[in-house]
Specification:
There is one protein chain. By secondary structure, the chain is α/β, with parallel strands linked by helices. The chain folds into 2 domains: 173 residues, Medium-chain alcohol dehydrogenases, catalytic domain (Quinone Oxidoreductase, Chain A, domain 1); 150 residues, NAD(P)-binding Rossmann-like Domain (Rossmann fold, 3-Layer(aba) Sandwich), CATH 3.40.50.720. It is built from 9 helices and 17 strands. The strands form 4 sheets. Strands 3, 4, 5, 6, 7, 16 and 17 form a 7-stranded mixed sheet that branches. It has a 6-stranded parallel sheet with strand order 10-9-8-11-12-13, sandwiched between helices. The radius of gyration is 20 Å and the shape is globular. One of its GO terms (molecular function) is oxidoreductase activity, acting on NAD(P)H. This is DEKNAAC103144. Pfam families: ADH_N, ADH_zinc_N.
Length: 378
């Protein structure tokens, strides 16, 4: 293993929220020695996520904070008290980038400290590849695209909805995933069908119909249809009042309200979203007593409280334990090719290309694919 440098390149927040002016390339210290309980990874690829630019725009990050939440690479150092990882392991990790209170934790840097409990260890050597098609994880680019997504889905299904990790116990259960063609939606469909054994209903533009059925969706409805809510309720079976599990991966007010309307009016139902929407966001209606509303915030998986927008968001032992249970299963599923990465769009030009990627994400120009950047030296 080559010598670890004392400094390295990273993409950091400029302090501007103007589209096209979010990041700059900086030289940043390498975290050495590696903290106890952590891994140091030489990054080979990183994925871009909407949460990256949103952290910047809502000022959850400050000038100089390193951006990015998804990465893949090679372990170059192992902190004390870490089990199950060795130098040379190929891994992918989820970290909290663009974050004021952990400014060095962003994934768009050459050397990154990661949390083992949110890291997937691969049983084979990954390669650097320009391959963009969906497949089981074989490349660092594919690996970089998957970790935040499966962590988010796992927290929603395992912790918030309390669904059992046992296909036989989920027979007859149906989950609506609103936004099947989002990066999270693509993984959510696969996990819900292939790991949990659920019947899956999803929404997307008609052009994604066959692609989402390939992921495992049993029903795909066009969200543009005026009667899409009625179509979903009918597909869920029975008298149209059977749907009791829903995840909104888009999580804007309109999709939140549409998803809410699909749920049973009488049976206990659980509705999870990803952007903190709650009862106050229901248009002209009061929440029904039979519906439980939750919002998955994946950063709580780190096990420590997060300060976001001046508010403290609490973690818990239950959250960490539920993730540990899920992680054992999902790591195996990813390694066995049961879960595949989404189609990739690999941006050329090193970390600087992330600026283009964030603009595409911010302006709604990305669908059914994941944006990938590579360090300048890869």
């Amino acid at each position: 293993m080559s010598t670890i440098p004392s400094t390295h390149k990273a993409a950091a927040f400029t302090g501007s929220t103007e589209d096209g002016k979010l990041i700059e390339i900086v030289e940043t210290p390498t975290v050495l020695p590696v903290p106890a309980g952590k891994l140091l990874v030489k990054v080979k690829a990183a994925a871009l996520n909407p949460t990256d630019w949103k952290h910047i725009v809502v000022k959850w990050g400050e000038k100089g904070d390193i951006v990015g939440a998804d990465s893949a690479g090679v372990v170059v150092a192992v902190g004390s008290n870490v089990k199950g990882f060795s130098v040379g392991d190929n891994v992918s990790s989820f970290t909290h980038g663009s974050y004021t209170y952990e400014p060095a934790s962003g994934s768009l840097q050459d050397y990154l400290v990661v949390e083992p409990s949110l890291t997937i260890r691969y049983n084979k050597k990954l390669t650097s590849s320009d391959k963009s098609e969906q497949s089981p994880v074989e490349s660092f680019e594919g690996a970089a695209s998957i970790t935040l997504g499966v962590a988010t889905v796992g927290m929603s299904l395992q912790h918030e909805m309390k669904l059992p990790l046992d296909k036989s116990k989920n027979s007859g259960k149906t989950l609506l995933i609103w936004g099947g063609a989002t990066a999270t939606g693509i993984l959510a469909i696969q996990v819900a069908k292939r790991v949990y054994g659920l019947t899956v209903i999803t929404t997307a533009s008609k052009k994604h119909n066959e692609f989402l059925k390939k992921q495992g969706a049993d029903f795909v409805f066009d969200y543009h249809d005026k009667d899409v809510v009625e179509q979903i309720r009918k597909a869920a079976g029975g008298d149209g009042d059977e749907l009791v599990y829903a995840l909104d991966t888009v999580s804007v007010v309109d999709t939140f309200n549409a998803t809410y309307e699909t749920l049973s009016r009488t049976k206990p139902a659980h509705f999870d979203n990803l952007l903190g929407l709650d009862e106050k966001d229901l248009k002209g209606k009061k929440k029904r007593d039979n519906v439980t509303l939750t919002s998955t915030l994946t950063y709580r998986l780190f096990g420590n409280d997060q300060i976001l927008g001046g508010e403290v968001v609490h973690s818990s032992k239950e959250i960490v334990d539920d993730n540990a249970t899920f992680w054992r299963v999902i790591q195996k599923a990813v390694n066995e090719g049961i879960i595949e990465h989404a189609p990739l769009k690999i941006l050329k030009g090193g970390y600087k290309s992330a600026e283009e990627g964030y603009s595409l994400l911010r302006n709604g120009k990305v669908s059914a694919e994941k944006l990938i950047v590579r360090p300048d030296n890869v």
